[in-house]
Give the backbone structure.
Amino acid sequence: METRINFHKIFLTVVYPIKKIEKKKKEYKEAKKILSLACKLMGTSIPWKTEALFEAVRRDIYEVVDEILFTSPDAINCKDGEGYNIIQLSVLNRAEKVYNLIYHIIERTKSHMIDSSSNNLGHLVGRLAPSFVLGRTTGAALQLQRELLWFKEVEKLVLPLQLTEKNIYNETPAMVFTTEHQDLLKEGEMWMKTTAESCSITAALIVTIVFAAAITVPGGSNQESGIPLFKKEITFTIFAVANAFSLFTATTALLLFLSILTTRFSEKDFLVSLPRILIFGLFTLFLSTIAMIVAFCAILFLIFCDQRPWMLAPICAFACLPISVIVTVKLLLLVDLIQSTYSPIFGKKSYLESCKVNRKNTIFMK
């Protein structure tokens, strides 16, 4: 009976998630078939597809955009109620998947897209992204970083002359970006300072603890020679190495977090500089915390577990508690920082390999 229960638990924890993923993949393939069939039944008629096309661009559903442009290539020239085509909408709504899908079209037509206010693509990307787009990213600092990535991408795409062009409000793309992102810049500065302050307190506590442990040698020392009594024990060596490693990494983390607090917080700092410092700071903080727990467990084992080996199990169990807490609290932030800073969102992506849109079947009218 007990074996059946254990087998059922293994099934639920391992097999069920795999089945769920397979079910989602099947539903995704069926949805693509239905989409393809619907577009074919509509034929090349554009009016029936325009609203779906614009909404797909706003929500960055590249599959719908790909299918509509494949069956109705002229849909690339459609404009919404505000006079924006899908290229301009993809920039305004930060739809990177749709942007990557139609990038080859944007390259050919970038100099011909001016709206009623004389805004080129540089002015449009300088605007603040919609709130539902900003909400996809954790923290104001990473939101500003994503906005800067978009601005730099379009800056490389447009003609050099367009970077200095002014709209009817006498604003260049850079001026539009600075004006639109003033509040987000302040929020990003506050978020970065709050995060650095909380982490620096943790790092300072670790430095204090491990420094005190290094001075106060566990088990005492020989009064004549000053050599620790547990010097020849392997566990004592583990304690010494882990304690020293924790001290050095915590000190490094503390200095990194303090450097964040003293920076000038300009727009460009949020692109790479500040996120990179925060990544290294969080990483060294993780290492110092784990090393501190290892050193503490080693000394507990050395003092108490010699005659009572059964204490090893509860010590290891309790040691996992603080590690799991800090991992739960800060690991997701570290992963988001690494992905946002070092994982490019533009360029050739694997999901584009199955797309049907190419250079031959999409023509943009000037």
Q: What stands out?
A: The chain has a mean pLDDT of 82. The first helix runs from residue 2 to 42. The radius of gyration is 29 Å.
